[in-house]
Amino acid sequence: MKFVNDFRQFIMRGNVVDMAVGVIIGGAFGKIITSLVNDVIMPPIGLLLMGVDFSNLFISLNGVAYQSLAEAQAAGAPTLNYGLFLNHVINFLIVAFVIFVVIKQMANLQRKPAPAPEVPTTKDCPFCFSSIAIKATRCPNCTSQL
């Protein structure tokens, strides 16, 4: 019974619940970012690269020439798929950049805290009107007792 109570306390901790919410929101946010990259950003990049498809760039390790990666995989040939690797690297860089921009914009939208009121650190001497420390009991300029 103690085990169940300990487990319940662990689950109901604020940071565990916050982490669970963060993971769920992160998964949903990841889908949005992936869709943004695949459906909005990649088509213009593909157009700029004149339809170059890196996914068909590979090296056949058995020495036989294949027309496409699918053909080589169907034949069971060992291949070095550097084109797919390049696609994943480019996709990662784009996703990282998009997340950076989105988080930067979200940070700009958040309310900035009001600046703390300034606490005066100096005051004017009533005799010589020079600026002195607020806690001073004697003016260092005119030596008047404050």
Question: Please, could you describe this protein's structure?
Answer:
This protein is 54% helix and 7% strand. The chain is mostly helical and 146 residues long. It has two domains: 117 residues, Non-ribosomal Peptide Synthetase Peptidyl Carrier Protein, Chain A; 28 residues. A hairpin with a 6-residue loop joins β3 and β4.
Summary?
With 146 residues, the protein is mainly alpha-helical.
Can you lay out the helices and strands and say which pair or pack?
Blueprint lengths: L1 H10 L2 H35 L10 E2 L8 H6 L4 E2 L1 H28 L12 E3 L6 E3 L13
Antiparallel strand pairs: 1-2, 3-4
Helix pairs in contact: 2-4
Give short descriptive properties of this protein.
Non-ribosomal Peptide Synthetase Peptidyl Carrier Protein, Chain A, mainly alpha, two-stranded antiparallel sheet, 4 helices, 146 residues, 2 domains
Low-confidence stretches: none
Helix content: 40-55%
CATH hierarchy, class of the largest domain: Mainly Alpha
Quickly give the structural class.
mainly alpha
Largest sheet: 2 strands, antiparallel
The N- to C-terminal Cα distance equals 70 Å
Strand content: 5-15%
Q: What's the number of helices?
A: 4
Mean pLDDT level = 83
The topology string of helices and strands comes to: HHEHEHEE
User: What is the radius of gyration computed over CA atoms, rounded to a whole number of angstroms?
Assistant: 33 Å
**Shape-level CATH architecture of the largest domain:** Orthogonal Bundle
CATH fold category name of the largest domain: Non-ribosomal Peptide Synthetase Peptidyl Carrier Protein, Chain A
Which outline best applies? elongated
